[in-house]
Amino acid sequence: MDTILEAPNREASRDREGPGETSHSLAISVENLTKLYGDVTAVDNLSFDLPTGRLFGFLGPNGAGKSTTIGCLTGLIDPNSGTINLLGEQFTSDSTELKRRIGVMPEGLALFDHLYAHEFLAFNARMYGLDEQTVRGRVEELLTVLGLNSAHHKRLAQFSTGMRKKVAFAAAIIHRPEILFLDEPFESIDPAGVAMLKDWLRRFVAGGRTVFMTTHVLETVERLCDDVAIIKAGHIAWRGDVGRLANGGTLECNGQQFTTLEALFLHLVGERYEHLEWL
Ligand SMILES: Nc1ncnc2c1ncn2[C@@H]1O[C@H](COP(=O)(O)OP(=O)(O)OP(=O)(O)O)[C@@H](O)[C@H]1O
Ligand SMILES: [Mg+2]
After folding, report:
1. CB within 8 A of 236, min separation 6: which ones?
2. I need a labelling partner for 89 at 20 to 30 A (CA). Which of 67, 100, 102, 114 fits?
3. pTM of the full predicted structure?
4. Packing angle, helices 161-173 and 191-206, rounded to 10
5. Chain segment 29-58, per-residue pLDDT in tens
């Protein structure tokens, strides 16, 4: 996996990367982003900056606008208004060159079901402009380390849910993007697979790259993320560094201190335990 995710040494990095690549202080800068679906405001005048080299957790209750935001930041969804800058350049759904520098694992996992995994990964890698030798090497390496080689005779339609998720993850990283957008990446993946992917992501950001990730697993966020935002009804309700929890620190919100992210999350989105009398 070193070829894709490990922090590059400086000389190799200079050869492979264009001038200025990964040198921007801000990976993502969003101003007044709004997305409406009819009369539903999915993303509501959202503004935030994310420095490079951070593993950012984007949290929030169901329907808060996380996937819509990822869609807007990756060109899958056209926002109604607002500006998006990625890696120091203005981003729109037509930003073809900038799109080559990001990777995305979207919520819906748009895989081509009639393809084999190696065909799908090779297709993605070629689309990002990798040379044939690199394509072959990375496809083979990814399928091997993700334990998918034994499924070489199955088309993607015949893959299990977790296997599909692994293929989508592989497709998002295969070109070694500068910003990696992941929408609930660990859902359905087995514990050994999750442990490996988390390790990859830590190495990835240690190399100066950036991860923007949604998840509902708060324990994962506490252990993995540097920086967290909790969104509610399309806007940011809290932003902070959860790393302090590991050192016995607390998280502050509205003048209150919280010792876990779960307690803070419940404070923000409301704690509701309703009974079902008939159950
Ligand atoms: N294609 C669509 N058409 C109409 N409304 C949509 C569409 N996609 C999302 N929405 C609405 O936009 C809002 C935000 O949805 P979004 O999928 O971004 O939430 P989310 O935070 O990703 O939720 P989850 O945690 O369930 O994945 C919701 O009210 C949802 O119903
Ligand atoms: Mg979602």
Report:
1. 46, 48, 229, 230
2. 67
3. 0.91
4. 10
5. 999 999 999 999 999 999 999 999 999 999
Question: Which-ligand-closest: CA of 61?
Answer: 1
Distance (Å) of CA 243 to CA 32, 149, 221: 28, 36, 9
In the block, residue with structure tokens 């996992």: 109
Residue 192 has which token pair? Answer: 């050994």
CA dist 95 and 211 (Å) reads: 20
Q: Of 180, 127, 227, 144, which is closest to residue 5 (Cα–Cα)?
A: 180
Which atom of ligand 1 is nearest to 43's Cα?
A: 14
Which residue type does 137 have? G
9-30 pLDDT, tens digit per residue, is 333 333 334 444 545 699 999 9
Ligand 1 centroid – CA 64 distance (Å): 7
Split the chain (279 residues) into runs of 10 and give each run's mean pLDDT.
Answer: 40 37 80 97 97 96 97 96 97 92 90 92 95 97 95 92 96 97 95 96 96 94 93 96 87 93 92 84
CA distances to 31, 72, 230, 266 from 61, rounded to whole Å, are 22, 19, 9, 10
Domain at 1-101+183-279, CATH homologous superfamily: P-loop containing nucleotide triphosphate hydrolases (3.40.50.300)
Q: How far is CA 105 from CA 67, 211, 217, 242, in A?
A: 11, 11, 17, 24
The secondary element (H helix, E strand) that includes residue 235 is: strand 235-240
* Domain-wise residue ranges, the chain: 1-101+183-279, 110-176
Atom of ligand 1 nearest to the CA of 35: 12
> Which protein residue has the closest C-alpha to ligand 1 atom 24?
62
